[in-house]
Design goal:
The complex is a heterodimer of chains A (about 900) and B (about 230). Residues about 1-10, about 250-255 and about 385-405 of chain A have low confidence and may be disordered. With about 900 residues, chain A is α/β, with parallel strands linked by helices. Chain A is about 50% helix and about 15% strand. Chain B is of the alpha/beta class. The chains are: A alpha/beta (about 900), B alpha/beta (about 230).
Chain lengths: ~900, ~230
């Protein structure tokens, strides 16, 4: 809504902000941002391209920090550009490089390039974050060109974490984005990003590789792209508005046609709305329908008028108009302010249908509009004569119909009485003019607290009291001096003027408060919806918010094969009739229910939740009181709520669909990787067994006993391998399917370690195994599954470490958890792979056999226990696998018995 | 090899498994009788009166558990159930229903023969040895004096530990389920107090095993129970 007063002067706060902005522009250098939706869109590349162009134009461009991540195309763009030597910082035994801020300030180039503004500097640098370096450079007059991903913007952090499930810790404040003089959005479709990711063109740090897997999904990328586009659009919009504010808003911006139709309760309005729609269609222009609520006018409208006004607004909305509600004492000014604010080029309004004399008394909206319209065209459309209704009230105003309530009038006499007493008490010291002043103060007080009617009455009473008590002859209404008649007239005029002015201010502030309340309600809804991820959460939020704002119970319904269903449990019981209303609204994309064109007799109102031309659901409300939504203001607010909820629901449904598609793709990928991995591991032993047994059965071959035994041994070994693989696959299937049933019992750690070692006795025969288990330590676990974990870990150690190297097994309990460790002295794990070795089908060394399932099974089992498993290289070589299990409660007590037999 | 060969009834639906069992049993002096289904197996059991039954738990027509129960109604013949890994619950159910031991598929010949030998030894529900002193592997038990020696060293046991060990020794080589052990030592009211058992087994191991972390005498059968090793 407009930030201007009704009298057309810019808001002083806005002016001040603009002056400050201009001052900054004069002294501070430019900040240019290349914004991307995700890594891999090509921000650095585009920024460098631009830098090369500037260099050719003779601009002094210097690279502060640019990461090419080894990409040849990007590296090629560095050629010819001066690069500042980086500051080398030793940190935890490694040397890291950072921007040399002092060198950059000393060099003071025209333009400095800074990649990844969200980057966190090594501890000990001057600023914690790179964007702070950028700010300092800007203050020093260096133009900064930087890159930024949208997920690093502070205010979007929460939203993005909710969408992607990846929380970004490196953020830049929104002020940085607002501070940017130019933002260039690098917009690339998600398919392209994924393609680049597959080709390895997107740089992902090792430790973030796992997070990245979850991050780079089409759904996430789409959402991020939308956010980036929105952020940029907001920036552009702000710039545009700033520019227009500088021009004083006197002239509209002739970017394109935009039509505004003025809607009132007159029956002719429907026709005017349709005319506006046609005009909009011809001009291919966006259009809006505006109505003005004149102060407390909603009280003045008859029920019939109110219903009709609502119907007209609904009509306009269904024809594609944006509906805007305004409040103001002077409708023409309010409409024109809106029109200027929104760049309206044509205003459409109906011909007045009332008698001419009313214009003289109440003023003519049409005349005011035309007079103040300036360069905006005003189209006056003839209404539908047959439907002309004398009772119609145009939005410009109408006579009050409300029956006067006596109480405020009596209260209004109180200040009059007080003024009289003050005047009487001080009559010896005061002049008559001063007493008149006291009465005027009384009138102001009445106007401020009680409104127009009582203050007018107070004006008349004041004049009467003044005459009766203070004008000679006293205690009569007779006036001796004709001069006093003039005093009375002035006093009455002043009283009336004060009361009407005060009243206007009162009404404006009331309307302002009302508007504020609506905006706050809408804002609260938007916020609550932003956190709702699925239809169920949205349904809950919608019900809560509607109940809070409209004090009416509501329930969100979505389409189901045989009617409608509610995605969240609801306190509101819907009858079959209520559901019919909802279904109708859902199927016909139009609101239905109480007081509307369709199913007007129903108890509920059902609003279709339309987005992208599809009804995503229907919001069903039981209005309380029943007439609540006959009020255009409430109806308009409800429409805004419905639009927001529809958008949220669409988002949730799209996300759901995208997730399902992603899941399908993922399953497909796992299946094919499983097939390729397993088919090899299955075929090899089967081939060997088949070949060997054929050799044994071959009658022509002459095999001695030793040779026969050797071949039979091969068959046995290969069968063992096959059996282990199949058993691993079965275990993995159970872990994956989530059907793993963990039957926890309190088990002595000694026992589970002992039984695993006993099972692995054959494989560990040649090894020195050191076992250290805390005495009497017990923990709740599934003994069969945990033994399997230990067997897999021991098997893993036996397989991946040289024969004869020792293995250590340790176990114990802390206060709230138990831990088990298997440590070896083998070659260790390549850095960065500590987490990946628990992934399915991951093989640390491609030469070793096995499907890469053992450790994945371990992790599955431990996680099913609520525990965790990690691997870490040991000092002095080798790996320690450590798993921890939660221990809740104390081990059960075993009754003691006297010692001795 | 004796003239009268021990009759072993094999109830197993998989033909290759039957072939393997038939060959092995024949080669080691047993007389196998083959049945491919539960119904056939029960019929052959009444007909031939086998001295041992090898029963697959995954039969197509009837539950192996039912077959065990039905056989137990009229026969004390030792039953060894065959089952896959991961089906511990089925094994425990079969053992508690009266089966004598189990073998997890896949198994080797040595394992099979060892189980058969143990089962034959305990045939007829393991009558108490007449002698007051008997030994299992390196363990010597003097039942009259309640004294235990392991590798000639005297070991002091509490009454419960003694009862536990004595029960296992009488069933040496056989698997005993948690329920069977608890029932025997603590009584019918304690059959679900598995942790009693685990704690006492830990104590017994500390007193008897050379390396309690790598037990060689009291073997753990995860999810099923314990077995006292009867091989030296």
């Amino acid at each position: 809504m407009s930030k201007r007063d009704d009298d057309g002067r810019p808001d002083p706060d806005a002016l001040l902000a603009r002056v400050r902005a201009e001052e900054r522009h004069a002294t501070r250098a430019k900040l240019r941002l290349w914004l991307g939706a995700s890594p891999g869109v090509g921000k650095t590349y585009t920024m460098l391209e631009n830098a090369q162009r500037l260099r050719r134009e003779g601009v002094d461009v210097v690279i502060g920090v640019v990461e090419t991540h080894g990409r040849a195309e990007t590296a090629a763009l560095l050629e010819g550009l001066e690069e500042l030597p980086r500051r080398r910082v030793p940190y935890r035994g490694r040397t890291l490089t950072e921007l040399d801020l002092d060198a950059a300030l000393a060099r003071a180039p025209q333009v400095l390039l800074l990649d990844e503004l969200a980057h966190t500097n090594v501890p000990g640098s001057r600023h914690a974050k790179r964007w702070q370096d950028a700010m300092e450079l800007l203050d020093a007059g260096v133009e900064v060109h930087g890159t930024l991903n949208v997920q690093h913007v502070e205010s979007l952090n929460d939203v993005i974490a909710q969408i992607t499930h990846v929380r970004v810790r490196e953020t830049v404040p929104d002020a940085l984005v607002e501070r940017a003089d130019e933002i260039e959005l690098i917009d690339v479709p998600p398919e392209v990003v994924l393609e680049r990711l597959r080709e390895g063109k997107v740089y992902v740090p090792d430790q973030a590789a796992r997070a990245a897997e979850g991050f780079f999904r089409p759904g996430n990328l789409l959402a991020l792209r939308e956010l980036a586009l929105r952020l940029t659009a907001e920036h552009v919009d702000a710039e545009m508005r700033a520019w227009r504010h500088q021009q004083g808003i006197a002239a509209t911006w002739p970017a394109r046609e935009r039509i505004m139709v003025c809607v009132g309760p007159s029956p002719a309005s429907a026709r005017v709305v349709r005319a506006a729609r046609r005009m909009a269609a011809v001009l291919r222009a966006p259009w809006m329908a505006a109505y003005v609520e004149k102060g407390s006018q909603s009280h003045f409208l008859s029920d019939r008028d109110r219903t009709r006004l609502a119907a007209h607004l609904m009509l306009a909305e269904s024809l594609g108009a944006e509906v805007v509600g305004l409040a103001g004492e002077r409708p023409a000014e309010a409409l024109l302010a809106l029109a200027r604010d929104r760049n309206v080029s044509r205003i459409v309004i109906g011909k007045p249908a009332h008698a001419r004399w009313r214009d003289l008394i109440y003023g003519s909206l049409l005349n005011d509009l035309i007079r103040g319209s300036g360069d905006i065209d005003v189209h006056v459309i003839a209404g539908d004569g047959a439907a002309r209704d004398e009772a119609a009230v145009d939005p410009g105003g109408g006579p009050p119909r409300r029956a006067a309530d006596g109480a405020p009038y009596l209260w209004g006499l109180l200040p009059v009485a007080l003024s009289t007493i003050i005047g009487a008490l001080s009559r010896d010291y005061l002049d008559l003019a001063d007493v008149a002043m006291a009465y005027l103060v009384g009138i102001s007080v009445t106007a401020t607290f009680l409104g127009r009617g009582p203050s007018l009455a107070a004006s008349v009473a004041s004049v009467a009291a003044f005459d009766f008590f203070f004008v000679p002859p006293y205690f009569t209404f007779t006036v001796s001096d004709l001069r006093y008649v003039f005093t009375f007239a002035v006093m009455l005029c002043a009283g009336v003027l004060i009361s009407s002015l005060t009243n206007r201010v009162r009404e404006q502030s009331r309307a302002g408060r009302e508007r504020e309340r609506r905006t706050a309600a809408l804002y609260a809804l938007t916020r609550a919806l932003a956190g709702a991820r699925d239809a169920e959460a949205i349904a809950r939020v919608a019900a809560e918010q509607l109940d809070e704002v409209f004090e009416s119970p509501a329930v969100l319904l979505v389409g189901a094969p045989h009617g409608v269903t509610c995605p969240a449990p609801s306190a509101l019981e819907l009858s079959e009739a209520d559901r019919t209303v909802a279904r109708w609204a859902l199927e016909h994309h139009r609101p239905a229910g109480r007081g509307l064109d369709t199913l007007a007799g129903a108890r509920v109102i059902a609003m279709p939740l339309l987005a992208e031309g599809r009804a995503r659901g229907a919001l069903t409300i039981v209005p309380r009181p029943e007439t609540r939504f006959d009020d255009p203001g409430q109806r308009h607010l409800l429409d805004a709520f419905v639009a927001q909820i529809a958008l949220a629901l669409e988002r949730a449904q799209l996300a759901d669909e995208a997730q399902r598609a992603a899941l399908r793709a993922e399953t497909e990928e796992i299946r094919s990787s499983l097939l390729s991995s397993v088919s090899h591991d299955l075929r090899t032993p089967i081939g060997t067994i088949l070949g060997t047994s054929t050799a044994l059965l071959d009658p022509s071959a002459t095999l001695d006993v030793g040779e026969r035994d050797e071949l039979v041994g091969v068959i046995r070994d290969e069968s063992t391998r096959l059996a282990r693989l199949v058993s691993n696959l079965l275990d993995m299937t159970r872990v994956e399917a989530g059907t793993l049933e963990v039957k926890k019992e309190w088990i002595p750690l000694e026992e589970v370690v002992g039984s695993a070692l006993a099972r692995m006795a054959e494989e560990l025969r040649e090894r020195e195994v050191e076992v250290v288990v805390a005495r009497d330590a017990m923990a709740p676990m599934d003994p069969v599954l945990l033994e399997q974990v230990l067997v897999n870990l021991l098997g893993n150690a036996a397989k991946h470490t040289p024969a004869g190297t020792p293995i250590e097994v340790r176990a114990g309990t802390d206060s709230d958890r138990a831990w088990l460790e298997v440590a070896d002295r083998g070659p260790g794990i390549a850095p960065g792979l500590e987490a990946r070795i628990f992934d399915k089908f991951f093989r640390g060394d491609a030469r070793t056999s096995g499907a890469g399932l053992g450790l994945a099974i371990c992790r599955g089992i431990v996680v099913a226990h609520g525990g965790a498993i990690h691997a870490a290289n040991r000092a002095g070589g080798g790996v320690t696998f450590r798993l921890t299990l939660p221990v809740e409660g104390a081990p059960p007590v075993v009754p003691t018995e006297p010692a001795g037999a | 090899m004796s003239e009268v060969r021990t009759r072993v009834l094999v109830i197993e639906d998989e033909a290759p498994m039957r072939r393997f069992l038939r060959t092995t049993l024949n080669a080691h002096g047993y007389a196998p009788i083959e049945a491919a289904s539960a119904t056939e197996g029960l019929a052959l059991a009444t007909q031939h009166g086998p001295e041992l039954v090898l029963l697959d738990l995954g039969l197509p027509d009837r539950d192996g558990l039912e077959v065990t129960g039905e056989l137990r109604q009229w026969s004390e013949v030792p039953i060894i159930v065959l089952s896959a890994r991961g089906l511990e619950r089925d094994k425990v159910a079969a053992l508690d229903a009266g089966a004598d031991d189990y073998l997890t598929k896949p198994f080797g010949v040595n394992e099979l023969l060892a189980r058969i030998r143990v089962a034959m030894r305990h045939r007829g529900r393991a009558p108490l040895p007449a002698a007051a002193v008997w030994s299992v592997g390196p363990i010597e038990i003097d039942d009259a004096r309640h004294e235990v020696r392991v590798r000639q060293e005297p070991v002091h046991l509490t009454p419960i530990e003694y009862r536990l060990l004595a029960f296992m020794a009488r069933n040496a080589g056989r698997v005993l389920t948690h329920r069977q052990l608890l029932h025997e030592v603590w009584g019918p009211g304690a059959t679900s107090q598995t942790h009693y058992l685990r704690v006492y087994m830990t104590h017994l191991r500390r007193k008897m095993e050379r390396d309690p972390a790598r037990p060689a005498l009291i073997l753990n059968e995860p999810g099923v129970g314990y077995r006292l090793c009867d091989e030296p």
